[in-house]
Design brief:
- By secondary structure, the chain is an all-alpha fold.
- It is 81% helix and 2% strand.
- It is built from 5 helices and 2 strands.
- Strand 1 and strand 2 form a beta hairpin.
- Helix 1 packs antiparallel against helix 5 and helix 2 runs antiparallel to helix 4.
- The longest helix is centred in the first third of the chain and has 55 residues.
- It is rod-shaped, with a radius of gyration of 38 Å.
Amino acid sequence: MSLTVSSISNNMMQMKIMKAMASGKKINSASDDPSGQAIASSLEREQRTNEAEVENYKMSQSMYNIKDGALSGMNDYLYSLSANAVRAGNDLYDSTDQAAIAQDNAASTAGISALASTTTFNEQNVFSSGEINTSSVDSIASSVDSARASTGAAYNSLSHRISYTSNAAINTASSKSKIEDTEYGSAVSNLKTQQTLRTANYQMQKKRQEEEQDRVRRLFSA
């Protein structure tokens, strides 16, 4: 029994449905759905861009964590400087004591300067030039407080960006999935429909063949 165009088309459709069920993707090549494939590819690029942005934001947060740790260390030095300022005003301390206080202050100021100049992330300094003013205790305190406030604000801003961009990536992935992933309920229903059509097509071909054979028999028996 020869294959008709209808039966060939039916067989190809069944193979396409079965491939979609096996792979989990209803778009396995551009020919399956050219416009759908183009949209899915665009959504894939958008999703990956969002995911890369989230990675960048998280890396920046790590940098701010390092910076905040250094600022916390500077505050420890500031506590010592503030305490020494009170001690230096005590007349009971003699010149030797005052010299020790001054030496301790110099060590604390040097420690702050070291943190400002040597704290790095990914081999880059986390403090900009002059961000921490070490000209006086008040200047140090003011610049440290300012830097810590801006660091905290930047970290929180990144948290909001991470949340928004992560949701965007999830929603984009969901949209892409709706376009290219196999809907198994629909696929099973379509497969059953194609199988029914194939059976009907086979029966019609068989009936036509039987009618043709019967016509030939009648022609030769006449």
